């Protein structure tokens, strides 16, 4: 009995040591894991971190924060233009490192060396992500009980994303119209020309600064910044005022001269843009060159697509918005074509009776039959009863009855032309028709009376433009 009591006394300390060791090993191998949600916005104060397995009690210590965004895009699509702002604020940023990733298979603080980033000296780390995203934030830090780290989330509405979406959609819809608008080319080229003239004047004026010719290019690049540009403009205005005073022009004339110089600069830039459009954009007949219009339309479409993709931080939402805008573009294009066709056929419907009469007078063929009654129809049209509905109905019935098969009309066998033969045949027949037209004295009198309305296209211009138009519409399709 004393022996068993002695064994029991030896067994109890062994069990206590084993339990303590297991708890310590468990605490070392499992870092602290916290979950932060984006909705509603949350703020979490990180507890004291635990050391990694094998790192000893001296560190490094690790804490993992799991960031969970909104669960579903379909059930909650109202955050299309929003962003989730994640902040980490530390009281003692020295030695604190962060790893921001989305790979859940990587263990706590097991990121690659290139993924770790140091906490800024200000103690505030901030990142903007999609409200529907899922991310992991690992903290690695030395042992410091006085360190305090707070992780918070906040949803923010981004107005410029709305502007990107609206401008991108408008540009995509009107891309074809802008590419063929002469006003668009003149306005854009004149605006660019004005800025170019101002930049050239600034660049030439900065050569007069006491900085040497070698660094003038760098100063010109820095002048795009608002502060540097303001400084140089102030410097140039002071220099110009001193020059005008030395010439003998009073200070009362400085403002009118400045306004006059500004107007001259604007006109020079506008003329530069106008000249560029005339030389590079317009064709010989005054319309926009087809190649230029084709390139500009696709450039506008690409820019609009990029702007739409930038309208949301969520990639799936941005891609869905792009598809939505493409569908709207296609529908608008189809609606525009249908309205034009409806307008054309609506205007041509008023001539429907004329075409029906014409087909009846010329013996329209139906199922191998030739309708007669041309002379009787002509006489009836000249009679005062031609306008009455009853007479028209009886006349149409008479025409339908007096129909018979043709016995003297023969249709020659048709021969298929190749493309070259068809073009040659068309060219030859057109020449014959033009010779007959020009030999007519009535046409000569009409041409003399309407000489100001006749214009001659450049050789091959009409054919090439129509051919390029067909190729363009065939390639663009709905666009």
Automatic annotation (TrEMBL):
It is a multi-pass membrane protein. This is Uncharacterized protein. Keywords: Membrane, Nucleus, Signal, Transmembrane, Transmembrane helix. It comes from the Eukaryota. GO terms for cellular component: nuclear inner membrane. Residues 381-397 have a biased composition (Polar residues). The chain crosses the membrane at residues 157-178, 184-205, 217-237, 257-277, 292-309, 315-332. Residues 366-398 are annotated as: Disordered. Residues 1-25 form the signal peptide. The keyword Signal applies. Belongs to the NEMP family. It is found in: Nucleus inner membrane. It comes from Zea mays. The keyword Zinc does not apply. PANTHER family: TRANSMEMBRANE PROTEIN (DUF2215). Residues 366-380 have a biased composition (Basic and acidic residues).
């Amino acid at each position: 009995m004393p022996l068993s009591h002695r064994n029991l006394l030896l067994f109890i300390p062994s069990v206590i040591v084993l339990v303590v060791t297991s708890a310590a090993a468990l605490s070392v191998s499992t870092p602290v894991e916290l979950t932060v949600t984006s909705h509603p916005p949350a703020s979490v104060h990180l507890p004291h971190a635990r050391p990694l397995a094998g790192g000893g009690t001296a560190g490094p210590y690790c804490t993992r924060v799991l960031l969970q965004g909104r669960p579903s895009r379909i059930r909650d699509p109202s955050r299309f233009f929003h962003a989730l702002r994640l902040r980490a604020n530390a009281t003692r940023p020295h030695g604190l490192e962060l790893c921001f990733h989305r790979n859940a298979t990587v263990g706590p603080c097991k990121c690659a060396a290139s993924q770790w980033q140091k906490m800024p000296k200000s103690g505030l780390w901030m990142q903007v992500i999609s409200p529907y995203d899922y991310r992991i934030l690992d903290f690695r830090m030395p042992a410091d009980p006085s360190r305090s780290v707070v992780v918070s989330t906040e949803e923010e509405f981004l107005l410029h994303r709305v502007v990107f979406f609206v401008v991108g959609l408008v540009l995509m819809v009107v891309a074809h119209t802008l590419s063929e608008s002469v006003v668009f080319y003149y306005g854009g080229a004149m605006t660019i020309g004005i800025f170019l003239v101002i930049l050239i004047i600034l660049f030439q004026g900065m050569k007069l600064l006491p900085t040497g010719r070698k660094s003038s290019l760098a100063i010109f690049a820095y002048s795009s910044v608002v502060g540097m540009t303001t400084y140089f403009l102030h410097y140039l205005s002071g220099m110009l005022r001193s020059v005008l005073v030395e010439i003998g022009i009073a200070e009362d004339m400085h403002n009118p001269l400045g306004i006059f110089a500004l107007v001259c600069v604007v006109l020079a830039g506008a003329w530069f843009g106008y000249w560029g459009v005339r030389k590079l954009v317009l064709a010989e007949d005054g319309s926009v060159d087809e190649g230029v219009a084709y390139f500009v339309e696709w450039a506008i479409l690409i820019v609009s697509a990029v702007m739409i993709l930038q309208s949301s931080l969520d990639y799936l939402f941005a891609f869905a918005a792009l598809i939505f805008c493409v569908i709207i573009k296609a529908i608008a294009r189809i609606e525009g074509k249908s309205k034009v066709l409806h307008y054309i056929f609506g205007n041509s419907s008023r001539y429907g009776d004329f075409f029906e009469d014409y087909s009846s007078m010329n013996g329209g063929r139906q199922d191998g039959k030739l309708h007669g009654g041309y002379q009787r129809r002509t006489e009836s049209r000249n009679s005062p009863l031609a306008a009455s509905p009853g007479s028209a109905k009886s006349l149409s019935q008479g025409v339908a009855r007096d129909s018979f098969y043709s016995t003297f009309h023969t249709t020659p066998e048709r021969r298929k032309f190749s493309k070259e033969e068809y073009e040659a045949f068309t060219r030859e027949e057109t020449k014959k028709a033009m010779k007959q037209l020009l030999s007519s004295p009535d046409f000569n009198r009409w041409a003399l009376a309407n000489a100001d309305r006749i214009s001659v296209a450049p050789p091959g211009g009409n054919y090439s433009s129509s051919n390029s138009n067909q190729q363009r519409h065939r390639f663009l399709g709905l666009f």
